[in-house]
Amino acid sequence: MRLQFVLSEIGIGLRRNLAMTISVVLVTFVSLTFVGAGALMQQQVSTMKGDWYDRVQVAIFLCTQDSLSASCSGAATDADKAAIEQALASPPLSQYVSEVEFETSDEAYAQFQQQDAELSASVTPDQLPESFRVGLEDPERFGVISESFQGSPGVEQVVDQREVLEPFFAVLNAATAGSLALAGVMLVAAVLLIGTTIRLAAFNRRRETGIMRLVGASSTFLQLPFLLEGVIAVCLGAGMAGAVLLLAVDRGVTGWLAEQVPAFDYITTTDVWATIPWLFVGGIVLASVASLVSLSRYLKV
Question: What transmembrane ranges does the database entry give (predicted)?
Answer without folding.
Answer: 21-41, 180-203, 224-249, 276-295
